[in-house]
Amino acid sequence: MPELPEVEALAAFLRENAVGRVVARADLTALQAIKTFDPPLSALAGLEVTGTARHGKFLDLDVSGLHLVVHLARAGWLHWRTGLPAAPPKPGKGPLALRVHLDPLDTDPPAPGFDLTEQGTRKSLAVYLVHSPSEVPGIGRLGPDALVVDREQFAALLAGRHGQVKGALTDQTVLAGIGNAYSDEILHTARLSPFKMADKLTDDELVRLYDAMRATLTDALDRQVGQKAATLKGEKRSGLQVHARTGLPCPVCGDTVREVSFADTSLQYCPTCQTGGKPLADRRMSKLLR
User: Fold this and answer.
1) Is residue 145 one of the residues assigned to a domain?
2) DSSP character for 43?
3) The pTM is what?
4) Given CA atoms 154, 164, 4, 115 in this order, what sign does their dihedral have?
5) Are 28 and 90 in contact (CB under 8 A)?
6) Co-location of 126 and 205 in the same domain
7) Which of 11, 191, 24 is nearest to 112 (CA)?
8) From the DSSP assignment, how many helices (H) and strands (E) are in the chain?
9) For the FPG-type domain, which residue ranges apply (predicted)?
């Protein structure tokens, strides 16, 4: 799932490549992706892209006062195209959900633009066209941005959260922008079990967790902002130490990275670095180590 660093990098990429261009048209091919109807997507035609922004894990294109807001969900992505075919794509064919055509500049090949795609059968990519980003329900519920919150605010947010620290980091109403991958990385850097209770963290653990969050996200941003959209996924994977590395050695201590699987997701951790050498039971209703 694209998280704060990837969405910020996509916003920066579009700021450089799309801002200042005029939208020629938008072709919707996955009806379930569009979540609003007024204004219609056809209202974008002839308007200039004037800015880009990020709200948590939402990508926001300002198109002359209208906001095309996208949540890429678990398997969505944005692909920049330097030459789009003039013919409209066929609905329901392949992973394409939305195609946005931009008017070419004098130095461009024909019809630049971008595609929004989503792999797999579980379709969760969401597109909104609104007058204000605050009209998007998910944005209205966001907590403070993970890169804006200070240490005191962070401690207060977690002190009021009765639940596991992994869940607190990924709950967008608590902190905006962190998902499954970077929460694994943050907890590994902080040397904390994902099942430690958020409201039971000591002052030292809170400091380690906050510092790990800042370091993990800023490092990912430094590596990804300025990359082309096509290379961002690979850049994210190259920086991961435990997430999606089940069975591989921990780059810090050499222990084997372990996994806990749930109904529709999983987490990865290092026993030596995070749980005192004890593996977490890999079943959902187990008595979890804290």
Assistant:
1) no
2) G
3) 0.92
4) negative
5) no
6) no
7) 24
8) 8, 10
9) 241-275
